[in-house]
Amino acid sequence: MNYVKELRDIVGHRPLILVGAVAIILNENGEILLQQRNEEQKRWGLPGGLMEPGESTEETAVRESFEETGLTIKKLTLFKLYSGEEFFTKADNGDEFYSVTTAYVTTEYSGDIIHTEESIALGYFSSDHLPELMVGSHRRMIREYFSEKKQ
């Protein structure tokens, strides 16, 4: 099912409010798992994506993380909810949307990292050595997480 595509067939490029979730997946060294996305800009970001009808945000984070990394998340802890004017996006194809994104954190997962069609590359990064080309909102989420963790 592709709920957003079905909506776009009806409303075209007009702004939508889309709900999604991301996972801050940390390894035993406190490094964060990032994926280089299979998109035009090839940006790095957190595993995650948009909610499908009937899903909770937790289920979205678990499903998307598995689809993008091959890892099965066992436990999520709510970090923060992101929304508002600064989360407006105009996609390369002209689609406009405001995102409401729930960020979760986990250190409990299983499986082996695998490359899927959604990811060009996957890797763990320390908070002070993040890739240059990143999804801006994801960089903000990571910085806020590590900043609040230090307090």
Secondary-structure blueprint:
Layout: H1 3-11, E1 16-25, E2 32-37, E3 44-45, E4 48-50, H2 57-69, E5 72-82, E6 88-90, E7 96-110, E8 119-125, H3 136-150
Parallel strand pairs: 1-7
Antiparallel strand pairs: 1-4, 2-3, 2-8, 5-7, 6-7
Describe the structure.
This protein has three helices and eight strands. The mean pLDDT is 93. The protein has a single domain (3-150), classed as Nucleoside Triphosphate Pyrophosphohydrolase (Alpha-Beta Complex), CATH 3.90.79. Helix content is 25%, strand content 38%. With 151 residues, it is α+β, with helices and mostly antiparallel strands. The protein is globular, with a radius of gyration of 15 Å. A hairpin with a 5-residue loop joins β6 and β7. Strands 1, 4, 5, 6 and 7 form a five-stranded mixed beta sheet that branches. It has a three-stranded antiparallel beta sheet with strand order 3-2-8, with no helix packed on it.
